[in-house]
Amino acid sequence: MQTKKRKLISIQMVGFELRNVIGNPYVHIFGIGLPIVLAMLITRMAVSEIPNEMAATAAATSVYLGAAAMIPMAVLLMGYAVGYAEEMARGVQERMQLFGISSRMTFCNRAVAELFFLIVAFGLFFGSGCMFFQLKRPTAAGLFCYIFCMIVFSMICMALAHGVACLCRNFGKTYCVGMLIYFSFLILGGMMGLSYEDLPGWAQAAAKLLPVTYINRDFYQIWTGKTYQFMPMVQSYLFLGAVALLVLCVPDVVRTLRRK
């Protein structure tokens, strides 16, 4: 008798994973609350010092475009990584496999649930920006490019978060590593009060390897349809993607070596 093959993605599993995401306090604090508060404070300070209305609109838009990168970093590098590590420590994954739910199915359904949550978080973030500040309208190409870059950046963050959680395998270590990566990205990306030009030479070299640097510093040019040299940004995506893939594969390699 053949057993019925489970679907890789199902509405019930996505709903279950979405409830897990919503129930994680880290995604609400760091993924929604903190980006909105920081973006509004920084924008308010920047706009108050600019008398020209067009320049103030450009400054506010630039701040919001850069600060939005905090959302996937917090939701995935913090929320997903910590939640998944806690599940592994409690043996949740092993119990789910007894019911025919593989780790691959869990990962795919969680990815869809995280996507839904990210859409809501971005909507709240830019909605608050439009309510309190005048943001520059994008060109069609600029909006498409921004959405595409954010999706790819979110995928890289999720792969990195999953790999970190599998390596650390408990709440404390994963939380510590996730916080270090999160704040390193914020500092090097110029979101903590220090611009790229204010960083020392070695920090600038590291910042060039991170997509968040270009999102925060340069994306206003793309947003408004101005000419932009994409190659440094593409190289940063390729580099961080390669690092995330390496971290994602390390736990499987370690388990294979242990079996031998």
Care to describe what's here?
This protein is mainly alpha-helical and 260 residues long. Helices cover 79% and strands 0% of the residues. It has helices at 11-22, 25-48, 53-67, 70-90, 92-98, 103-132, 140-168, 171-188, 201-207, 211-223, 231-259. It is globular. The two termini are 35 Å apart.
Helical percentage: over 70%
Number of helices: 11
Which descriptor suits the 3D outline? globular
Q: Largest beta sheet, briefly?
A: none
- Strand content is under 5%
- The counted number of beta strands is 0
- The Rg value, from CA coordinates, equals 20 Å
What is the N-to-C order of secondary-structure elements (H for helix, E for strand)? Answer: HHHHHHHHHHH
Structural class: mainly alpha
- Straight-line N-to-C gap: 35 Å
Mean pLDDT: 86
**Low-pLDDT segments:** none
- Quaternary: single chain
How would you summarize the topology of this molecule?
Blueprint: H1 11-22, H2 25-48, H3 53-67, H4 70-90, H5 92-98, H6 103-132, H7 140-168, H8 171-188, H9 201-207, H10 211-223, H11 231-259
Helix pairs in contact: 1-6, 2-3, 2-4, 2-6, 3-10, 4-6, 4-7, 4-8, 7-8, 7-10, 7-11
Structure, briefly:
The chain has helices at residues 11-22, 25-48, 53-67, 70-90, 92-98, 103-132, 140-168, 171-188, 201-207, 211-223, 231-259. It is mainly α and 260 residues long.
